[in-house]
Write a structure and sequence with these properties.
Length: about 650
């Protein structure tokens, strides 16, 4: 009998904690072998902070997308711990292999779902302890079933299947831990709490914020918890008459609120300083509701987002991997029938608030009070009411598809999607910019100029679009306009090395050599590993006969970029012209060790040997150059000259 009971206990224990795990794995197993898609390209593939060669300290200086927080283009999304987990994935897998990223996301969702058993136990059954201070679960079946439902809820799909959803998952995990640790502060009795556990909870809240900004909202839930404990014993009319229980209950209540308020204020201040003491700047594309015609329409649209998200919690039939402007059109007049939904939502909420304050059932008052402060879905991926605050940050679907195709080299298909994005939203400046870039590369310069001009007209501080417009105008020989566009880009983004590089190219085309060198020097000061800027300085100095200065610049560059074969090649040419043949030979050979299939490098090394009198070596490298590129300019003529010289030498010897 004892053995049977023990087996039954262990079976129940196994099912209790492993069924949520099984639900998670089964529900999300279809996405484990997915690729990097959409926002993954910017947050992971193009994010240099994931590379082990990048200093680890960079993740504390840059935003989620790898841009410096001080940059005008940064969205100030400071999530260093999330980026750190991406970096660990990269390190363990030896590169960008998506399966490891997906598996960790699923594992995190499993852990969160198991922890939800404890969270739901407190939400449903309340925080109750026995005489020894051990927490009791008064609703084991309800909390278990709620956790199962949570594990399989479709609304979590984006956060788990999308790798960038890692921020939601990590934030949710530490959100839960902060709340559970906070609840441990009350295990010593109903009227006392442990300050140490409260501070531990605030620390975990800070960790949640370092995974995603919404982690701060756990303090809202915790601020409501002491009120919930009081609300379970006191009704609204009693509060209004001040005829409630012992004063020490309210003293503890106020002291706890002060602790949480001070902790939250400190975290918000720290976050504000990290952002640079100013908010990020958003355009109409980023936040369409905030650009509605008047305040009334803005409020109506914000509340429509609330109602839409609340409905998705109950009936997730309309899910999308990316909420575009086409998915949720703005409400622009009182005749729009959708205005009914915000009204219905607030009617329901007001009814629930009344019940939370005035119900005769203390358990109902407690449950409703906690329910308002702790929507279960915002706890995890904030797709509920809290997520509406970040609703406007998501990009257009067509734009993301186009960007993904462009990253894969399918520019023709990308153009189609970018055009559709611009058609759906004529002020979508990022789509205009990317489309303009592709058209520039396809030499469709007039249309590219028109698109980029429209983009900077709509968003005058769009530095990247100004730079790209300058490149197009330079190609169209509109040099004055190109120069002005470059300076506009630098005006709105002070530290813009690529723009200085392109400005230098413009000056070089105009034979303004000093200005070109100054622009490229600025590029290398802002970005010391800017290979193209270094190389162009060496080439320009070489072409203008400043060989000694070109040599100095080339050697300076190689101290920073010791394996850059293009700079080695340019420096070798400079040294060869100075008849420093041995040193020049060394740089040519080192460049060929790094990249042995460069025809021009073999050809120029052959010229060096030709001048140096090492004719056999010259012949060998001429032949290698012609084998790699039979049409290499000048190589065939030089080779024929060498063959005649060798034939003449043989006749002389004979």
């Amino acid at each position: 009998m004892y053995g049977s009971c023990a087996h039954l206990f262990f079976f129940f224990f196994f099912c209790y904690f492993n069924l949520p795990l099984a639900f998670c794995v089964l529900h999300h197993s279809g996405g484990y072998n997915g690729d990097f898609v959409f926002d993954d390209s910017e947050a992971i593939i193009n994010n240099k902070d994931l590379n082990p060669d990048t200093p680890l300290s960079n993740i504390w200086k840059n935003d989620f997308w790898g841009s410096n927080l001080s940059s005008n283009s940064s969205h100030k999304s400071y999530r260093p711990l999330t980026v750190l987990t991406f970096r660990i994935n990269y390190l363990l897998a030896g590169g960008l292999h998506p399966i490891g990223f997906h598996m960790l996301n699923v594992a995190l969702h499993c852990v969160i779902s198991v922890l939800m058993i404890d969270v739901f136990a407190i939400l449903i059954g309340g925080l109750v302890h026995d005489g020894r201070g051990v927490k009791l679960n008064l609703s084991p079946k309800a909390s278990f079933l709620a956790a199962l439902f949570f594990a399989a809820h479709p609304v979590h799909t984006e956060s788990v299947a999308g790798i960038v959803g890692r921020a939601d998952l990590l934030c949710a995990l530490f959100f839960q831990l902060s709340f559970l640790v906070y609840c441990k502060a009350f295990q010593g009795g109903d009227k006392k709490f442990s300050v140490l556990w409260i501070f531990s909870s605030i620390l975990l809240c800070a960790v949640a914020m370092l995974c995603k900004e919404q982690g701060i909202t756990v303090l809202v839930s915790e601020n409501m918890y002491p009120f919930e404990r009081v609300a379970g014993q006191i009704k609204l009319y009693a509060i209004s008459c001040h005829s409630f229980g012992p004063n020490d209950l309210w003293i503890d209540f106020y002291f706890l609120l002060v602790l949480l308020f001070l902790g939250g204020s400190f975290l918000l201040y720290a976050r504000w300083r990290i952002m640079g003491t100013g908010p990020p700047s958003f355009t109409e594309v980023d936040n369409p509701a905030s650009f509605a015609e008047n305040v009334i329409l803005r409020i109506v649209n914000y509340n429509y987002y609330y109602s839409l998200n609340a409905w998705l919690l109950l009936c997730p039939w309309w899910l999308c991997f990316d909420w575009s402007m086409g998915c949720v059109p703005l409400i622009k007049s009182a005749t729009d029938w959708r205005i009914v939904w915000p009204l219905l939502l607030w009617c329901c909420l007001m009814g629930l608030v009344y019940q939370a304050l005035c119900s005769q059932d203390s358990n109902k008052r407690r449950l409703l009070t906690l329910g308002f402060s702790r929507e279960t879905e915002p706890v995890i991926d904030f797709i509920g009411l809290m997520s509406s605050l970040t609703f406007s940050f998501l990009a257009q679907v067509h734009y993301n598809v186009g960007k993904n195709l462009a990253d894969r080299g399918n520019q023709s298909a990308a153009v189609k999607y970018y055009r559709e994005a611009v058609r759906l939203h004529p002020k979508y400046v990022h789509a205009m910019n990317n489309l303009g870039n592709i058209l520039k590369e396809r030499n469709e310069l007039e249309e590219a100029e028109e698109l980029l001009s429209s983009a900077v007209h709509i968003q005058p501080d769009f530095a990247a679009a100004w730079m790209n417009l300058g490149i197009v105008q330079n190609s169209l020989k509109k040099f004055d306009k190109a120069e002005q566009s470059y300076w506009n880009a630098i005006k709105f983004r002070k530290k813009y090395p690529d723009c200085y590089y392109n400005l230098g190219r413009l000056y070089a085309d105009l034979n303004r050599s000093i200005d070109a060198l100054n622009a490229w020097r600025n590029a290398t000061m802002l970005k010391p590993d800017h290979s193209l800027a270094w190389n162009n300085m060496v080439i320009l100095l070489d072409n203008t006969g400043n060989l000694a200065q070109a040599e100095l610049i080339g050697k300076e560059a190689l101290k920073i970029l010791p394996k850059d074969h293009t700079i080695m090649f340019s420096l070798a040419n400079v040294l060869g012209k100075q008849e420093k043949y041995k040193e020049s030979e060394g740089f040519f050979l080192n460049a060929l060790k790094i990249n042995p299939n460069v025809a021009s490098c073999h050809g120029n090394l052959a010229v060096l040997y030709h001048r140096w009198g090492k004719l056999d070596l010259a012949k060998r490298h001429y032949e290698l150059s012609l084998r790699l590129d039979p049409n290499a300019p000048g190589t065939k003529e030089n080779y024929n000259m060498l063959k005649r010289k060798l034939e003449q030498r043989q006749r002389t010897v004979g």
